[in-house]
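call fold(seq) -> C-alpha cells
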Amino acid sequence: MLTKPVSGVPTDESISIEALIDAPYDIYKCLRAQSPVTRVPSINRIMLTKAADTKRVKEDWELFSSDDPRTPMTRAFQAHTLMRKDGEPHKRERNAMAPAFSPKNIKGCWQEIYTQVAQDYIARLPRGETVDLFQALAAPYAARCLTHLLGIPEASDDEMIRWSQHLIDGAGNFGERPDLFERSDRSNAEMNALFDDCVKRVRRTPDQSALSAMVNAENPIETSQIYANVKIAIGGGINEPRDALLTILYGLFTNPEQLEACKAGALWNEAFEEGVRWVAPIQVSSRRVMQDTEIGGFEIAKDEVVMTVQASACHDEELYERPEDYNLFRPKTPHQAFGNGPHFCQGTHIARRMLAQIILPMLFDRFPNMSLPDPAAVKFSGFGFRGPLSLPVTLT
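ret:
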C-alpha cells in the first residue's frame, strides 16, 4: 500500500526483496501505472520504473553519481570498483581494459576462440537426451570464453561459475546477510591467488587479454584496481550471456512460429535483442543524487539513492506494445538492457557475437528439432540479475 512520507515521494512498504526476486515484472507494471517514482524501504532506495526517467538518470552522471554509499558491491568485491566511479576515475579504469574489447580483437582473436569453444561444448551434448542447458552449456560456455578474454585460462569452469555467483550474490545482498558476504570473501581470496600467478605469465608473454592490457600498459592502473576490474567482469561476464542465452531459447521454444521463422531467416540478432529486452539480464542499478532535484514531478533530496529499473524501462508501454510478450518481430526500438551513458556495458558487442553469431546458430544446426518438453517447469529468478534457473531441453 502506498503512503506519503515527508519528502512527498510515495512509499510502498509492501514490496519485499523476496517478491522482487520471484515476480518483479508484476510489481513494475503496477508502479509504472500508479507510481513510477516510489520509495521502497526493503531495499532502502527510490525506484524509478519509467524509461524516460531511467535514461535521464543514467546519462547525467554529474547529477546522479554511480558512487552509491549504500551499495553492497564494495563489501562483496572488497574494492571501490569502476562500477561505482564517475568521470575521469571511471574512464581511466574502463579504458584500461578497452583494448581487449576492441572490434579488431573481437574479430581477429575472440571470434575464432569462441567458435572453437562453442564447437567443443556443443559436441559434448548427448543427442536424443533431455539435458539442462543451464549446467550443460550456457554457464560453462560463458565461463570458458571469459577466461580467454580476461587472461585467466587457468581458472576452471566450475571456479568461474562459483566466483561469479558469489560476487553477484554479495553485490545484490541488500539485506546484508552475513553468509553471502562470507562466500564472496572466500572467492575473493581464491581469485587474488590465481591473479597473482596470471600477472606473472602475461608479463612474460603478453597477449590480447584484458589482464595483459592492464598489466602491460605504459601507465598501468593500480594492481588492486586491475584485480577489481577482472572481478567485475567475472561477476557480470558469466551470468549475463548465460541468462541471455537461456532466456532467448525459452522465448523461442514457447513461440514455435517465431522459432521456425528465426531458423529459416537466420534472425539470430533479432532473437538476441528481443531476449535481452524481454528479460534484462541486469535488472537494476543505483545512483546517488548529488544535489536537490526533481524526478517525475517529485522533489528528490541530495544524497538520496535512486534505483533505475532497466527491467521495467524495457517493458514501458509508452515504447513497447504488449511488452510482456517475447516477439522477435517487434518494431526496432532502442532498449536499456545494457544500460546507457558512461556505464554502458563494455561487453555488449562480445555478448552479441557470442550468442547471436556463434552459439545460437551452431546449436540449432546440430540439434534442429530440439524442444522444451515442459515450459512450466522453467523458473525465472533474480532481482539485480535475472534469468532461468534451469532449461531442460530434449536434444534432437
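The mean pLDDT is 94.
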